[in-house]
Amino acid sequence: MQVTQLMHASLLVQDVGVARAFYEGVLGLSPSTQRPDLGYAGMWYELGAQQIHLIALANAPQPTNAEHGGRDRHIALGVDDIAALKSKLDTFGLAYTMSRSGRWALFCRDPDGNALEFIER
CA–CA separation, 118 vs 82, rounded Å? Predict the structure, then answer.
């Protein structure tokens, strides 16, 4: 047996509408047409061969480290322009921190506190 690739990452959200406003309105992701009716609210986003799954869960656990997402559970996403992402986050008044390792990477949180890392590729 060999693990060969990451298929998707799931994030817990309390309000799918609020989460969609962030993932679609701020990050510019498009909803996937592949999500079947699973019997609970959620949303999928295609990112190449991988996906992000948002799963609605009332009283979702809060992040473990509110100051910097790099020291919390997080997913890393490739972007083509960190400066443009910073500008967009500033426009929406959303907080972020730069990587403390010196890499050209940015951390922010979605409305539910899920940590996201963005690495310029």
Answer: 7
> Among 2, 26, 9, 5, which residue's Cα sits nearest to residue 75?
9
> Comparing C-alpha atoms, which of 30, 9, 12, 2 is closest to residue 111?
12
d(CA 91, CA 39): 36
The domain spans of the chain are 8-58+65-120
pLDDT digits (tens, 9 = 90+) for 50-95: 999 999 998 888 777 667 788 888 999 999 999 999 999 999 999 9
pTM for this model (two decimals): 0.90
What is the identity of the amino acid at 81? Answer: D
Helix, strand, coil tally for the chain in percent (to 5): 20, 35, 45
Q: Is 17 exposed, middle or buried (0-12, 13-18, 19+ CB in 10 A)?
A: exposed
CATH numeric code, 8-58+65-120: 3.10.180.10
CA angle 20, 26, 32 (to 5 degrees): 45
